[in-house]
Amino acid sequence: SLCRVARLTPKNTALFVCDIQERFKDIISCMPTVIRSADILIESSKILDIPIVVTEQYPKAFGNTVPELKIENTEKSPVFAKTKFSMYTDDVKNHLATLPNVKQVILCGIEAHVCVQQTTFDLLENGIGVNIIADGVSSCHAPDRKIALDALRQGGAYITSCESVIFELLRDSRHESFKQVSALLKKPRVDVGLN
């Protein structure tokens, strides 16, 4: 029998960007790497016409999404304020209902062991596959991130990387957007020991 494999295509996928906000910039472990991965995924999603969903945890207290991510609150990349830890709020559920082809979510953001983990389990319980970007999630304390990735894998999520997901979406070096998207991967890496 065939094993269960989540195949990502631009038509069946959405990008979820979880709470990458100004207030957390200096307290999250390896935040420059998280921002780099999120930036590449956001820009790639715009090129490949993949829907983007962004949340901000209580922005009155924690500020808005970091400016490096160039998020515009538009129909194609709505930004939802939340107090719940999970991104899977009523507003996000209603938005997903307008995207009936979405069967897979690429998820990046913070914190891995709280908002990312609860979002993942909510999506999985509702029949949506989740692909966690290992170099795109983190927590204040590095051990929490590692424990969360283990729990997420055990719970049924796929743990992958920014670059792996990009090439999965492209599938072929002859893809019309290959040069444009693969050029994004040349953004300087910040080797800060995410493992």
TrEMBL record:
- List the Pfam families hit by this protein, alphabetically: Isochorismatase
Q: Which residues form the Isochorismatase-like domain?
A: 13-163
Q: Which InterPro entries match?
A: Isochorismatase-like_dom, Isochorismatase-like_sf, Isochorismatase_domain
- Highest rank taxon of the organism: Eukaryota
What is the similarity comment for this entry?
Belongs to the isochorismatase family.
What is the name of this protein? Isochorismatase-like domain-containing protein
